[in-house]
Design a protein that fits this description.
The chain contains eleven helices and twelve strands. By secondary structure, it is α/β, with parallel strands linked by helices. A six-stranded mixed β-sheet has the order 8-9-10-5-11-12, with helices on both faces. It has a four-stranded antiparallel β-sheet with strand order 4-3-6-7, with helices on one face. The protein is globular, with a radius of gyration of 21 Å.
Length: 304
Amino acid sequence: MCGVDRRKTRDARGENKTLKLIEVKDLSFRYSGSDSYALKNVNLSISEGEFVVLAGKSGCGKTTLLRCLNGLIPHFYEGDFSGTVKIDGMETSKNPPHILAQTAGMVFQNPDNQLFALTVEADIAFPLENLGLPRDVIRERVEWALRLLNISELRDRSPFELSGGQKQKVAIASVIAMKPKILLLDEPTSSLDPLSAKNLIDSIVELNKKERLTIIISEHRLELLLPHADRLIIMDEGEIIYNGDPRKILEKDLLIYGVSMPKVSEVARYVNAVNHSIFKEIPLTVEEFVQALRRYLDDKDRGG
C-alpha cells in the first residue's frame, strides 16, 4: 500500500501534520426533476497524496460525488444542493468550474466526451491555451504529460484512431497538463479489455506515486486498484456506508451493496470463517495470499 508519510508535512514546531486537501461537510444533492436525493448528508475528508477508491452499484452516488468535487455540481447540474465542499481551501459553490479544474481535474467514463481536436498534441494543449498560458509553457507541459503517460509516439495521431485505452490515457494527459493536485476518474476502465484496463491502472498508480497526485477513482475492478489504495469507500443510495482501510472493509459482506470483492480476498474471507488463524488480515493479491498460507503451514510444521 502507499505509505502515509508522503501525505504529511511538518508544522512550525516540527510535528507531523496531515494536509486535508478535500473537505466535504453535510453534503446532499437532488437532481432537478428527481424525487430522491443522489447524495444524502455526506461527510468526507481526503488528504494530499491519498489514493481513494469509490465502489458501489450503479446509481449509488459515486458519479454525483465526483461531480461535486470539481464543481460541475452545483454549477452545471441543476438541483437542490446543501452542505459545503472545499478543495484546497476553495468552496466549490463559490468558485467557477474553470478555476476549480486547475485543482481538481476530472476524467470521464467515455473519453470521446473529452477529445475533439485533430491530434493528440492539440487535445492536450487545448485547456492550457484556454488558460492563456505562454506558448513555451504550453509546449513544456504537453511534452511532460506525453512522457508521463508514455504516449509520446501518439502526439500526431488523431484521437479517434486510437484504442479505448489509448484514448483514456490522452484524456488523462489533457487533465494533468493543467497540473492539478487532484485527479478524479469516473469508471475509466468500464469499456476496456482486461489488459488495457491493467495498463491504464498502472499509469494512474504511477501518477499517484511519482507526482503525489491525490487520486479519487470510481471503479468496479477492485482487484487492480486495492493493492495500491489507501482507502476504500463503499456507497449505497447516496450515503457512505464504509470508509477506511480496504483490508478491514473487505471483511464485510459487500455483495449486498453490489460490490464484488477481489476473488483472492473472497476466498480468504471464506477460509477465515472456518479457521481465523490463517489470515491475520485479508490479502489483496495472490502473492499476499500465498505468503500468509506459507507462514501458517510453516508455523504448524514447527508446532506453533
